[in-house]
Design a protein that fits this description.
single chain, mainly alpha, Hypothetical protein af1432, 9 helices, about 60% helix, about 0% strand
């Protein structure tokens, strides 16, 4: 069996080939950040790196845009392709089921319960990348691609209306990002999530001061 450093090099090279710079929110650096966070959580929670590492690298192995009707199938397709890729590279089959589950369960749209610690870690690592300063950058990058305006002028912060992030970027904080913190599963992930929540709240406070100057 190859060591984890060797398999990580293979995984990193493969993802560098399929990650697209056309979507900055899901480029190669996104994968690297998720892996780095997953490793840290894995150490904190004493989980199996043999499962977490490949699942984190391959969590979006099949990339489907957020506005694509097949989006809910992305994590299932990624899990199937990931297992096949690992099999071709002689990764131990005893980890395949746990890796596949971690990949399938990480997704919001798939709505699959995380049944293992390793799945919770991969899910937390991916969701943490949508929070905090980097989360803010990713929100605006995605909104730019989808031609959404920054905010609804009459009520920018959804104080008297339900959020509609199909039209307004700032609404995504209220429709999803603030709620994401509540979905984090691991103790270490929750602590980091609360830090990133405060970063986003401070940003919106500053945003409000500037547009209401």
């Amino acid at each position: 069996m190859m060591n984890l450093n060797e398999i990580e090099k293979i995984l990193s090279e493969k993802i560098s080939q399929i990650a697209s710079n056309e979507d900055p929110a899901h480029d190669f650096l996104h994968f690297k950040r998720v892996v780095t966070t997953a490793k840290a959580l894995c150490k904190e929670e004493n989980a199996k790196l043999e499962v977490v590492l490949p699942a984190a690298w391959l969590h979006d192995f099949v990339i489907i845009p957020k506005n694509d009707p097949r989006r809910s199938q992305a994590s299932k397709l990624s899990a199937e392709a990931a297992v096949q890729f690992l099999k071709e590279n002689h990764y131990p089959e005893k980890f395949f089921d746990e890796i596949a589950h971690a990949i399938m369960a990480h997704s919001y749209s798939a709505n699959i319960e995380t049944k293992t610690l390793e799945a919770k870690i991969v899910q937390d690592a991916d969701r943490l990348d949508g929070l905090g300063a980097i989360g803010i950058a990713r929100v605006f990058a995605t909104s730019g691609l989808m031609k959404r305006i920054f905010y609804f002028e009459e009520d920018p912060f959804c104080e008297s209306r339900p959020p509609d992030d199909s039209k307004f970027t700032i609404d995504h904080f209220y429709s999803k990002l603030f709620k994401t913190v509540e979905t984090l599963k691991t103790p270490a992930g929750k602590i980091e999530g609360m830090k990133r929540l405060e970063t986003m709240k401070t940003y919106l406070k500053n945003f409000k001061e500037e547009i209401c100057f």
